[in-house]
């Protein structure tokens, strides 16, 4: 009965859901660096240009992005290592979508800035500290110089760009220094996220370099303070939500949707990933376990996504999400900070352990 009601509620908000879906397209896993914190567990694989053409010509864009600014993220690896990145950008230019990407800044040159500019692509540059700290993270002595050059060049352009910083015990005491550096360079936005112990960062965990819960809490409070202190200078985005807020506004995490919370919210997944081999993945292109795969781009993106909606696989995800919320969030101490990806990570852990059984 519960399942039947869930399916019927899902069908009621299908149009709103499909309009809001974002895409995370993993263009390449190749990278020029091998950072100490990188979550990628291997750096092989690149998406073929025919797969990219297949994606942009799909009904999903052609018929279902007409009235909306759909968001697409081009992710990597280092996407600017691709010689055909200009062609890829231009494939997205004529769609009614807002496109963003993240880069380590190494290949930002006059040519790449021009490509970003003429194709209206937003950019996030990774910056983990000022000078040595950044170079230490990136295991590369000229990494920060490259970043400074990229920032200088971007400031002379019309490209919308900001900075993203991954925080661990290495840089947690230098947050204000990073913010001030950005303000002095007239950078208008900075986003902080915490380093997750995956891939190379598993070694950081062994070396006790990953933030524990109380450090995450401290950092979050510091960021709230800096948000106020520098409100006129820069937009600072944190990485978490208090338990009380989650309980009140569970819709933010796809927990309450449709009739039960804010009327404009939709259920998980809010985004789908496409990995370099063309697999379509619930939520995130880095999930490799079979549970997360819902189809392949050869079957058609729109076909796969609409077939998935309210299917057994979708219901299984929503049920696991609800159970995880009840077990992990409701039973936690009050005023505890939950990272943006907390629920997704816990759900992934739960699914991985049930697949092993
Ligand atoms: C995987 S990288 C790809 C883009 C590009 N190569 C770069 O480093 O900017 C995307 C973002 O994830 C961050 N990142 C990498 N490993 C991480 C981890 N273990 N935890 C949190 N963020 C991480 C990077 O610093 C970067 O900002
Ligand atoms: S964090 Fe980015 S730059 Fe560093 S190794 Fe990973 S993909 Fe490459």
Provide keyphrases for this structure:
357 residues, alpha/beta, TIM Barrel, ten-stranded mixed beta sheet, two-stranded antiparallel ribbon, 15 helices, 12 strands, globular, binds S-adenosylmethionine, binds iron/sulfur cluster
Structural summary, described in words:
This protein is an alpha/beta fold and about 350 residues long. The protein has one domain (about 20-245, about 270-310): TIM Barrel (Alpha-Beta Barrel). The chain has 15 helices and twelve strands. The protein has helices at about 1-10, 15-20, 50-55, 60, 85-95, 110-120, 130-140, 145-155, 175-185, 200-205, 215-230, 245-250, 300-310, 310-330, 340-355, and strands spanning about 20-25, 70-75, 95-105, 120-125, 160-165, 190-195, 235, 240, 270-275, 280, 295, 335-340. The chain has a ten-stranded mixed β-sheet with strand order 7-6-5-4-3-2-1-9-10-11, covered by helices on one side. Strand 5, helix 9 (about 175-185) and strand 6 form a beta-alpha-beta unit. It starts with a helix and ends with a helix. Bound molecules: S-adenosylmethionine and iron/sulfur cluster (SF4). S-adenosylmethionine binds near residues 31, 76, 77 and 164.
CATH class: Alpha Beta
The first-to-last residue Cα distance is 28 Å
The backbone outline, from C-alpha atoms, is: globular
Q: What gyration radius follows from the Cα positions, in whole Å?
A: 20 Å
- Classify the fold: give the CATH topology: TIM Barrel
Query: How many structural domains?
Result: 1
Bound molecules: S-adenosylmethionine, iron/sulfur cluster
Please name the CATH architecture. Alpha-Beta Barrel
Structural class: alpha/beta
CATH superfamily: Aldolase class I
Low-confidence stretches: none
The strand count comes to: 12
Secondary-structure element order, as H and E?
HHEHHEHEHEHHEHEHHEEHEEEHHEH
What is the strand arrangement across the widest sheet?
7-6-5-4-3-2-1-9-10-11
The chain-level mean pLDDT equals 91
Strand content: 15-25%
Helix residue percentage: 40-55%
Oligomeric category = single chain
Largest sheet: 10 strands, mixed
């Amino acid at each position: 009965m519960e399942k039947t009601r869930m399916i019927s509620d899902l069908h009621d908000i299908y149009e709103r859901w499909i309009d809001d879906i974002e895409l995370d397209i993993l263009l390449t896993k190749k990278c020029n660096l091998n950072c100490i914190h990188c979550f990628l567990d291997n750096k092989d694989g690149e998406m073929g240009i025919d797969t990219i053409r297949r994606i942009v010509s799909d009904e999903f864009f052609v018929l279902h992005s007409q009235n909306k600014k759909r968001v697409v993220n081009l992710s990597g690896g280092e996407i600017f290592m691709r010689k055909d990145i200009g062609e890829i950008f231009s494939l997205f230019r004529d769609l009614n979508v807002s496109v963003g990407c993240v880069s380590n800044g190494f290949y930002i040159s006059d040519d790449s800035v021009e490509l970003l500019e003429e194709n209206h692509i937003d950019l996030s540059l990774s910056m983990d500290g000022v000078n040595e700290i950044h170079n230490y993270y990136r295991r590369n002595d000229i990494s920060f110089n490259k970043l400074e050059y990229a920032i200088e060049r971007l400031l002379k352009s019309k490209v919308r760009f900001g900075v993203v910083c991954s925080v661990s015990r290495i840089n947690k005491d230098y947050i204000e220094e990073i913010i001030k550096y950005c303000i002095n360079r007239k950078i208008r936005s900075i986003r902080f996220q915490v380093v997750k112990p995956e891939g190379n960062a598993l070694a950081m965990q062994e070396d006790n370099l990953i933030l524990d819960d109380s450090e995450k809490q401290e950092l979050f409070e510091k960021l709230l303070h800096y948000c106020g202190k520098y409100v006129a200078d820069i937009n600072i985005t944190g990485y978490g939500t208090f338990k009380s807020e989650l309980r009140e506004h569970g819709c933010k995490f796809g927990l309450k949707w449709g009739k039960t919370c804010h009327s404009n919210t939709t259920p998980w997944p809010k985004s789908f990933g496409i990995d370099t081999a063309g697999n379509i993945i619930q939520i995130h292109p880095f999930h490799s376990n079979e549970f997360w795969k819902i189809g392949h781009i050869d079957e058609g993106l729109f076909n796969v996504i609409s077939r998935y909606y309210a299917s057994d696989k979708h219901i299984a995800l929503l049920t696991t999400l609800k159970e995880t919320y009840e077990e992990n969030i409701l039973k936690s101490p009050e005023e505890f900070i939950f990272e943006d990806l907390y629920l997704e990570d816990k759900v992934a852990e739960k699914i991985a352990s049930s697949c092993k059984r």
